[in-house]
Amino acid sequence: MQRTLLLAVLVLQGCATDCSSRDWRERGYADGFAGHPPQDLRLERDCPRKGVPFSAADYLAGWRDGHDEYDRIRGSIEYD
Fold first, then answer.
1. Distance CA 47, CA 68 (A)
2. Domain count across the chain
3. Using only C-alpha atoms, what is the Rg of the chain?
4. Which among 43, 62, 65, 64 is positioned nearest to 54, based on CA atoms?
5. Which of 8, 18, 63, 79 could form a disulfide with 28 if both were Cys (CB 3.0 to 4.6 A apart)?
């Protein structure tokens, strides 16, 4: 029983939202450049609960820039 509880706690900690970013545009760019879908809804919900202000406009502007770069690079790779 204790082993199961410990495993559940470790798994849930891995799912925690990272609100440590202070530059939301940079965080959005990194997510977009990595090909990740936007995380604005999750961040907008979770970060204020942790007392961290979140700017969806900055995050999404960065995500669009990063995702555009991701698409450009991905499109330049030739597939056989």
1. 26
2. 1
3. 16
4. 43
5. 63
What does pTM read for this prediction? 0.74
pLDDT digits (tens, 9 = 90+) for 25-72: 999 999 999 999 999 999 999 999 999 999 999 999 999 999 999 999
How many residues in total does the chain contain?
A: 80
34 alpha-carbon distance from chain centroid: 10
User: Distance between alpha carbon 47 and the CA centroid of its chain, in Å?
Assistant: 12
Q: Which amino acid is at 40?
A: D
Tokens standing for residue 2:
């204790």
Q: Which amino acid is at 69?
A: E
Q: Could you write out the three-class secondary structure of 14-60?
A: HCCCCCCCCCHHHHHHHHHHCCCCCCHHHHHHHCHHHCCCCCHHHHH
